[in-house]
Amino acid sequence: MRSALIFVYGVLCYVLFFLTFLYAIGFVADAPLPRTLDRPMPVPAGTAIDWVIDIALLGLFAVQHSGMARSGFKKWLTGWMSPSIERSTYVLLSSLALILLYWQWRPLPGVVWDVGQGPAWWLLYALSGFGWLVVLSGTFVIDHFDLFGLRQVWLRVRGIAYTQPEFDDSFYYRIVRHPMMLGFIIAFWAIPRMSVGHLLFAVATTGYTLIAVWFLEERDLVAMHPEYREYRRRVPMICPWPRPAKREGSGLTASGR
Questions:
Q1: 3-class DSSP state for residue 194?
Q2: N or C: which end of the chain has fewer CB within 10 A?
Q3: Rounded to 5 degrees, what are φ and ψ at 193?
Q4: What pLDDT digit, counting tens, does each position of 201-253 carry?
Q5: Are 113 and 193 in contact (CB under 8 A)?
């Protein structure tokens, strides 16, 4: 019975994540949804409190998302919780942090750029859609169901011990080390009409992504997978620029960025 409840919990957390992810696409693209980055505009709009609320919501998500991913926090959490639902709980709280952001986000007025209704409009939305596609498909290139906790609860219900997925550098991961982060950056910036509120969101999330990946996630990956150190020397982090060739006899390679 306990294993069955754990499995149901993991499935419900996954369903909530997937619905939250789908809403994120419309939230960023200003689709006809109840709340987006640009709607509804509060009255009065663009007050100091609106800026404070938006920055606090972004900060809350960043602290939750990175804090719960640290090995020390995981060790503390699994000290009183079944390890099989640690990842599902992380997914659940990340989804709730995003739902809070959707609910309480305050659109900020002002237009930074607007390409109008023309070919550029379609091109930018197509590019944004491509970014979201890279994000979602990138999870399947590694292990989608492990990443979002389903594999863990499925193994628990079957009575099989959990093992970490092996390091995989196939497909997107041969071009950049963090293709999902690249996909998010593309999706957030490829927008035909960039409002001040959307610019705040894009700048904050891009900055958070770069800082979290460089200072936190990369360190964890090196600790988990010794081969990641060599992989980091060969493959760019986020920008898919070709690496300069190693100078023969010099023993020098490109940096990890």
A1: strand
A2: N
A3: -125, 105
A4: 999 999 999 999 999 999 999 988 889 999 999 999 998 876 665 544 333 23
A5: yes
Q: What is the pLDDT of residues 145-160, one digit of tens each?
A: 999 999 999 999 999 9
Residue whose C-alpha is closest to residue 169's, from 221, 220, 217: 221
Residues sharing a CB contact under 8 Å with residue 195, sequence separation 6 or more, in sequence order:
37, 38, 107, 108, 109, 110, 111, 112
Annotated domain spans of the chain: 2-234
Phi, psi angles (nearest 5°) of residue 174: -85, -15
Any alpha helices (H) in the chain, and if so which ranges?
2-29, 48-67, 71-77, 86-104, 119-141, 144-147, 150-158, 179-189, 196-212, 218-224, 228-234
CA pair distance 20, 160, nearest whole angstrom: 30
Contact present, 148 and 207 (Cβ < 8 Å): no
Burial class (CB in 10 A: 0-12, 13-18, 19+), 216: middle
Q: Which residues pair with 100 in a beta bridge?
A: none
